[in-house]
Amino acid sequence: MTWSNRFRLLGGILAVLVLVAGLTLLFNHRQARVASFEATVSAPTAQVGSGYGGVLTEQFVRAGDTVAVGDPLFTVISPEVNRERQQGVEPQSTAAYQVDTTTGAITYLAVIDGQVTQVSGVLGSYLTPGASLATISATDPKSVLARFDLEAVDYGRVERGAPVTINLANNAQVQGSVADVTVTTKDGRAITEVRVESEGLTDPRHEALTRSGSPVQAVMSLRDDGILAGPTDALLQFLVKVGLR
Prior knowledge:
Largest sheet: 7 strands, antiparallel
Radius of gyration: 28 Å
Number of helices: 4
Order of helices and strands: HEEEEEEHEEEEEEHEEEEH
Mean pLDDT: 82
Strand order of the largest sheet: 1-16-13-14-15-12-2
Strand content: 35-45%
Number of strands: 16
Structural class: alpha+beta
Low-confidence stretches: 23-30, 227-236, 238-242
Distance between the termini: 41 Å
């Protein structure tokens, strides 16, 4: 065998070893990631309730409308306003509603920026005090509530602040991190519930896909305790530097 053939053989062997090592490290990295079996977008909500009994005479919003703080939602004509005035009590406007003491009209207002997700009030109907008129889901902050089926040993590898990739319905991805972890039992099975925070959920480009209750998938990174943890991290950092990840 000539020296040139020896060098080619040696080069081929080295190339195979490098390829196998790289694939091994990438496989190890994927083993440290777990996908949720259920995940939905969550956002704070505000219930719009009728503080006074009366007839619903005006409706300014529908389900799906976007509202800002102070926007009018409904008007209710309430005889209770005049009744309170006759008793010497002057009804006062609040951040949630405006009272017109001359007509007995109460206009309910949005108390958060968000989207109207449900409208319960029916025009012309009589509302009792405390009746629900609508539900508003806030646009910010949003988070993801994800559920994972993990073995006990893997639960110990979940860390706050760990990176999470959120896959939206259109296959777009936003990055987040683990904010809180709890464990519940369902049908005798331990379920790991993770709350994921992500600024990307408020990106206007994804607004239609990140409304409260929208289904998503969360892929969470677990702490890598194996002997390949160091080499795997080094490889991933190298791939980021050269623009391959």
